[in-house]
Amino acid sequence: MILRIDRLQVELPPPTDPDPDGAAAVQELMGGRFGEMSTLLNYTFQSFNFRGRQGARPFYDLVANIAAEEYGHIELVAATINSMLTGASDSGNGDGSLGDALSGVKSARNTQQFIGGGQGALPQDSNGRPWNGDYIFSSGDLVEDLTHNFFLETGARNNKLKVYEMTAHPAARALTGYLLCRGGVHQIAYARAIEKLTGADLTKLFPTPRIPTDKIPECQPHIKRGEHKRLYRFSPDDYREIVAVFNGPHPETGEELEVVDHAPEGALPNDLPPQTAVFAPDYHPEEISEIAARLRSSAGLPEQPTGQVAAAEEEGLADKVKDKLS
Amino acid sequence: MILRIDRLQVELPPPTDPDPDGAAAVQELMGGRFGEMSTLLNYTFQSFNFRGRQGARPFYDLVANIAAEEYGHIELVAATINSMLTGASDSGNGDGSLGDALSGVKSARNTQQFIGGGQGALPQDSNGRPWNGDYIFSSGDLVEDLTHNFFLETGARNNKLKVYEMTAHPAARALTGYLLCRGGVHQIAYARAIEKLTGADLTKLFPTPRIPTDKIPECQPHIKRGEHKRLYRFSPDDYREIVAVFNGPHPETGEELEVVDHAPEGALPNDLPPQTAVFAPDYHPEEISEIAARLRSSAGLPEQPTGQVAAAEEEGLADKVKDKLS
Amino acid sequence: MILRIDRLQVELPPPTDPDPDGAAAVQELMGGRFGEMSTLLNYTFQSFNFRGRQGARPFYDLVANIAAEEYGHIELVAATINSMLTGASDSGNGDGSLGDALSGVKSARNTQQFIGGGQGALPQDSNGRPWNGDYIFSSGDLVEDLTHNFFLETGARNNKLKVYEMTAHPAARALTGYLLCRGGVHQIAYARAIEKLTGADLTKLFPTPRIPTDKIPECQPHIKRGEHKRLYRFSPDDYREIVAVFNGPHPETGEELEVVDHAPEGALPNDLPPQTAVFAPDYHPEEISEIAARLRSSAGLPEQPTGQVAAAEEEGLADKVKDKLS
Amino acid sequence: MILRIDRLQVELPPPTDPDPDGAAAVQELMGGRFGEMSTLLNYTFQSFNFRGRQGARPFYDLVANIAAEEYGHIELVAATINSMLTGASDSGNGDGSLGDALSGVKSARNTQQFIGGGQGALPQDSNGRPWNGDYIFSSGDLVEDLTHNFFLETGARNNKLKVYEMTAHPAARALTGYLLCRGGVHQIAYARAIEKLTGADLTKLFPTPRIPTDKIPECQPHIKRGEHKRLYRFSPDDYREIVAVFNGPHPETGEELEVVDHAPEGALPNDLPPQTAVFAPDYHPEEISEIAARLRSSAGLPEQPTGQVAAAEEEGLADKVKDKLS
Amino acid sequence: MILRIDRLQVELPPPTDPDPDGAAAVQELMGGRFGEMSTLLNYTFQSFNFRGRQGARPFYDLVANIAAEEYGHIELVAATINSMLTGASDSGNGDGSLGDALSGVKSARNTQQFIGGGQGALPQDSNGRPWNGDYIFSSGDLVEDLTHNFFLETGARNNKLKVYEMTAHPAARALTGYLLCRGGVHQIAYARAIEKLTGADLTKLFPTPRIPTDKIPECQPHIKRGEHKRLYRFSPDDYREIVAVFNGPHPETGEELEVVDHAPEGALPNDLPPQTAVFAPDYHPEEISEIAARLRSSAGLPEQPTGQVAAAEEEGLADKVKDKLS
Amino acid sequence: MILRIDRLQVELPPPTDPDPDGAAAVQELMGGRFGEMSTLLNYTFQSFNFRGRQGARPFYDLVANIAAEEYGHIELVAATINSMLTGASDSGNGDGSLGDALSGVKSARNTQQFIGGGQGALPQDSNGRPWNGDYIFSSGDLVEDLTHNFFLETGARNNKLKVYEMTAHPAARALTGYLLCRGGVHQIAYARAIEKLTGADLTKLFPTPRIPTDKIPECQPHIKRGEHKRLYRFSPDDYREIVAVFNGPHPETGEELEVVDHAPEGALPNDLPPQTAVFAPDYHPEEISEIAARLRSSAGLPEQPTGQVAAAEEEGLADKVKDKLS
How big is the A-D interface in CB pairs under 8 Å? Predict the structure, then answer.
């Protein structure tokens, strides 16, 4: 089971200019064959289905623990898409009647983000097709599952690089810069696991595609902080044997790999503003706020919401979006 | 992001007689339209896509927190399927050559559990079709998402009851007994949320289908322990406002609903034995064990695996399975 | 638009022994590529999309009118499947608790008919996969659409013959006997339309597969009544120009084709008994009946239900099913 | 079975300027999860699969009768899409050779409307994916099916509002204005049915999304005519018990709901002009017209087509399209 | 089994201006229901599954031999798409870091050609959906399979004509001009086969759609060379009985059909230049070239690559693309 | 383009006892994610999409040439399935009327092999779902495509081993014995290619799953003949540079790898007998034979069919099947 923490693994910029077609491209990193739903659910299923896990504990712990990190990755991709879509609809007629607020996205690549969704992330790829269970590989054969995972991370790196090249939206770049770094760590982890089991040295395949990670500007801050050589342990008490596999030199830099015995601190999520044209969270969001305040009061909770979000408003960014919407 | 805990939310019995067609039926609770992948990923996406979450915090917290519990549900369904499949293949010729170890499941309903998987759970439904992203509804409109969630839980209850009736395998019954109880709590939570927002009283729809939950023998122990009226908070520090929505009387029993401020203690998972006929985790699992021991030693870890599993062996159950396999 | 008549186009026998795997096979005639959903929706879409329909009125009328008949065909296939599934679950423990009522169908070919459905027809094929819109061909090119339709009816005839051979259940045989006859009429209609437009004589392709329709025992009564040479007009006032295309000799028998200027009389549907194990229509159907009676009374309707169903009960058949269920 | 009437349930404007991307958006109302194919086929299957229908007659009649109305809705959506696509191709080189007539739609969102179709409606959603049978819910459990239907109508309302906002094309607006009104009636009908069965009052959920229907300009004429509180009976003689469920006050206006004992008069469809670039109905439509005239004459039919279409030509609208095409 | 020849069946022009949306449209001819994957795999499966082939040898040979030709057609479609995509990305920052090289195709209709693929052809249709096995019809009934094949070729002709009209890119026009000609031959072959078996004369259906093939400028050179009346035998020694079916007059021109007893000479493929922005074949293709040269040398092969490609460079076309990229 | 040779790559036994559920399992090797359609079409697309092929010629030749061999593999899988299905239907009533000839397969796992197909192979997997284009990976990045191919062959080996264990039918065993051997060669080829490009030694991963190939009895004859270390060149003149990659010691046996400069001799296919119950190739196959003889005569061909098939009849095997059928 899991405990959930209401923070992102890395800070994302608040919404700026909307970029619907960019957001459609980022969907590949969510629901594509090599998207984060795939990494999350592949490793999750493999850990669920792991037979003889006591005998193979270091490997079980590795797969299970990386699965836990991947949850945070789909969260980041969703936050990025939502950010890129914010402001893409107009705010309506102002008189409460319905207007042309979505006419600006009639030719957008993925109209279901608006018609079915609330200007939000979908479990779809960049061509608007849903993620499906055929993307999961869980053979139970440990060497084979690890080979798959190495290949999956390689394909994921490829797709992230291309999405990087496709949109320069600040949120997309913050996302891909971070994910390229973290995906690299997982690629190393699986290569190391295969090496420990069979002796085959896959580290010579790094980097694939053959662009060094440190040539990507948005990766550099993370590399400077050491994020490229560090495996976090995403559990209060479990998965302690990852250290038995994740060790030795980093294939690109030669630095020693390290296990961090807790989750990263992360960052507060942005509270993305309502988009009333798509009724998210409502046509009159203030009515919900009033009800929420009343409920909070009845339950003896503080007057202000207890959950924390990034302090976007102080920086005037919410206003900027609001301006755009009015 | 999440922290993962290597425990199940409820205890499952160790493997007994295999039941491949029963396991194929239980797949509906995994990858069917109303399966646990759907509840998990619907609420997860809705929480990711929630706009204006500060203004609607009690509702955001509710959806996000139930999403966290659902992760534990797909884990339980997988463990059940894996348990029901254990022992369904023979152990082979004994001389290391390949034989007819899978001939006994040639007419099983879902042969991919064996051919593609390692006698393991798949992200598929009971007809062997993959779960897909079209099963997710995340409109961003709060009232509508909650209406959906209430309907989803209703459909899920229906399917669990039918799977209950279809197989009496102890693991399947332990699973459905628990999930019916917990799903009922989520159904109540969403009904209450709708009521708080609109005034509509959906509690009169309980139970749907119209069989009282306490008429199901395997639900009774959980009801006795109060699991039917309790919402756990699956987070170290967040989602504190669920209490603002989840309160009032239980629609079936009239007891007061309660929020538990932490996750349930849960139970240790069974360490399901290798199934060498399908190479899970290997054709020679003992080789992996040796490597694992060496790695543990090099890393300065204890000699014995650090992770905990249910003490199946002491009860002779692993032997029973082993006997069957030899 | 349509008016709906609560009668079947032909009489079906009441439920006898259940035949779940036979019902799974009949699903091919519902949701398969050549099933009745395909014939219905192909002709329906072609009629909706017909451009320049005044200039091509006889052909428009033909396609639109056959589409109307096909609605009755999916109705018949559903009724057949539902009939074949009736009695396939047990009636439960008798004490209102939940038991093993579905254990008898755990290995049935299509378990979703029970888990997702209420022992009922699904929009799926015989391998349990859903019908989908890719089965529709609507190019707008009249000659090509007609060529498709001729091919579609040919494929449909093939599949019906095989389902005939696969199950001898009385309902399945009544269904295929009738549909083979009516499908033959549509095949002729499209062949004739192509001939009128291009001069190509497709009637030499009859019958395909090359078994004469009158060699099929269950077709003979319909042939005797002339159903094989008769096109009904399924409209109060429209589609009068079908007669301009559907004329000339029958390709197999040489008899003159004829247009009947109204719908067939048809037959009353059987009122299939509740199956409480799957909660259809409820766990306690008698409660619904009481509510229904009250509502009828409040609305000033007769005490007895106004709709008509086949007089199954008098023949003791409902009892037979009831016996089986208890 | 059905009788088909060659009229639309409401008048649609004749083609004006083409709007291919708008037409791609309207596809969501055809083949999307919440499109009219879904409402039509959900209620149709539920009525086919209804067990114990005599005992639950008012509810059976309600579902069966609404299913009948929905047939007219897919017809309207198709007519709208076809209208919006009319004129989107050029008329070709004029010398009978093939040219660039489709180059203007090379970047259109749904190119299959042109390549596979004849500038026509497809059974697809707004992302170009086919409708499929997984969108149908037919559990057989009456309360649950009705809960689903209420949710389905809610989702459908959401999607219609968004398509309304996405394109201001006159045909799209005429469509959504009408469907929002009629969908609202179905939403009420299902809410009332649930209330009658369980006592739960869902009318407090109206409207969802929370924009009053009368704030939508294109709904107002229909509201004025009372279309928002009226359930038509789409059958010559059957489904008479709908009145037992559909009664009481309208949830938004308080007016008394009423049952109309026949179908609406409706309107004649537009005869959409040929689009020769896509060979619909032919590369030389006049040849078909000549053949049709000959066939009519041979069959003793009047010289002029007997079917009726809207008198578009008198208003010069066909010419306008023709001008555009030349 | 097959032998593969590294030549195209017809010459294609080298890359000129990129046309991503045109390439997305051409995908329909690859992975659409009527694309070349469908013709290839339909006839291939029919030949594999042919029962009693000795007794029906001329028909078996016909289907098997046309299947062989179709392999060359998917090759041509792929080459066309790849050609149209060449140059659609920029060449990057020049300093080895990653830039915005794909920003120009962010709004392209099929972004997976870039993100998942290497600016390359995908097994998808023009709406970006994958080809699937449901497009194959292989009933085993010879008359029916041939009827299907005739219809399939008819649909394929329709789609090719529309793609022709949609993009005037030189590669697309070279492709469609050739395929329309060759597809016409297959259409004739199947019509003749049906006629031989049943007497039905389908040649009156030619041409469908009703535009004469010789009205298409890009078909004329092929017609002049006689490609429209010629069936090649794609085998060293087998399929000699095709001549027993493919004979008689051409339906459109009256010329005698002829069998050519070998494959066409074809043309050398263009060696499409690397696209480093998508890492095809690498971020630094010259490194691969060096390795290749070394490997060639070690294996005693000539210094220069032994395989042949079209002499694009001499014509300065590669430079033109190179210029565009720099 | 290709030339097709009417021989199988290896001899298969003639039909013996039918094994429908075994045939359903073998479908995984046809249309599963790791089936032969996947290997064939992955390598085919990669070769079509290969950019800069002159510079990377040895690698291009390798992928293109293995693609050619894979065509022969789908042919073998189809022949195996068809063989295993032969005799699974009864021969009918004998009087030309239709009977229960398919009742014996009503509960077979894949009824579409009979209803849609002619007791024949389908492009589906072992759960009856169609192969689809999402199974193709063609990134254009050479290292990545090769990594994928290595993983694909690994997964394919896993699935073949399991199918081997699932059915002992002689045709299935002959198939898997051969394919395991040949797949191993491809696995080596891709490992070697990766090693040549990057230095990474994947040969230490052999065998995966970890059962030595020579422990599989049906592989031994092929190993004795050297099939496990031999890459055939499937082209009259092309792909000569494969020798630059495929060399060095065999990872399991240490023997020197070798390139054979032509295709294998192969074996004649069995002429599988008609199955009249499914109309394959006809309800009266002798009528087709008579027409074929006439056509052959008119075309000046020999009286007897010119194509060659295995001399099954002499061995009395066709009679055995015939006996079973009568």
Answer: 81
